[in-house]
Amino acid sequence: MELAMVGLGRMGMNMAIRLLRGKHRVVAYDLNESSIHAAEAEGAEGARSLDELRSKMAAPRIAWVMVPSGDPTEETIKDLADVLETGDIIIDGGNSNYKDSVRRATMLKDKELHFVDVGTSGGIWGLAEGYSMMVGGEKAVVEQLRPIFETLAPDADKGWGYVGPSGAGHFVKMVHNGIEYGLMQAYAEGFEILKARKDFGVDLHQVAEIWRYGSVVRSWLLDLTAEALAEDQELSAIEGWVSDSGEGRWTVADSIDLDVPAPVITLSLLMRLVSRQKESYAAKVLAAMRNKFGGHEVRPKHR
């Protein structure tokens, strides 16, 4: 099977390599010429424009888009829609909002193009381990793409599946990432409690290694935590500043819209916001109130 890989950031590049290893023909396109050269070095055929990409592929064409969510994805899909032909397929494997995916599927259907949204997990490890893929779209079209998913997955029948109509793939991935926020926060809090008990002198890396085998809290996230703690238990080279890429916010917003309580996911998102504050104004207000109503101690700020 042949397909175009549109967007060759690290994850997109790794996916292209895995497809090539699976003996698929890959046409690679990116705005960055060096990325195209790198893909060509792995065996892909490069394209310097979307028109060239179309000309190098036989119909029905399959274009897998792997670019940042939001405007980059929107513009890329619109540009592809202008050059592709009836019956061609666009796959969005990025972290798009599922509501955008529903809208894009309708827009492309009007142009007689097919759209498949693939929530993709696996990150930079996907090349070696395989990717977890949650697939939404027309079921018959998804079935047509089966050889691609079987190649990218950890195994042909594991780690991927059809989860529903257009938008469902990115919806399931959104909730997946919300759960990820909660798991990560629980690990982080647990290790901080262990570290705070100074008199026991707990070796955090040793504990992580113990938990990795046989424990009910073992996981890949714990494996990665153990790796980081082996390098430096103090994590002295990084700041406690945690970003979020949007999916946690979308999950919390949907939980509210659906009247589903999600306190752990919500609090884990809020803790990421707390991590970015050098100083909390809210905490100052709290201190000031306590001082005013009860004469409680406040700590003066040293300039």
Q: What gross morphology would you assign?
A: elongated
Average pLDDT value?
96
Number of strands: 8
Q: Residue ranges: pLDDT <50 for 5 or more in a row?
A: none
Rg computed from alpha carbons, rounded to a whole number of angstroms: 23 Å
Strand order of the largest sheet: 3-2-1-4-5-6-7-8
Spatial separation of the terminal alpha carbons: 66 Å
How big a fraction of the residues is strand? Answer: 5-15%
Q: Largest sheet, if any?
A: 8 strands, mixed
Helical/strand content category: alpha/beta
Percent range for helical residues?
40-55%
Individual helix count: 14
Strand/helix succession? EHEHEHEHEHEHEHHEHHHHHH
Labels describing this entry:
303 residues; alpha/beta; eight-stranded mixed sheet; 8 strands; 52% helix
Describe this structure in words.
The protein is an alpha/beta fold. The chain is 52% helix and 13% strand. An eight-stranded mixed β-sheet has the order 3-2-1-4-5-6-7-8, with helices on both faces. α2 (33-41) links the parallel β2 (25-29) and β3. α5 (98-110) runs antiparallel to α9 (168-196), α9 crosses α12 and α10 (204-211) packs antiparallel against α11. The longest helix is centred in the middle third of the chain and has 29 residues, at 168-196. The protein is elongated, with a radius of gyration of 23 Å. The protein starts with a strand and ends in a 9-residue tail after the last helix.
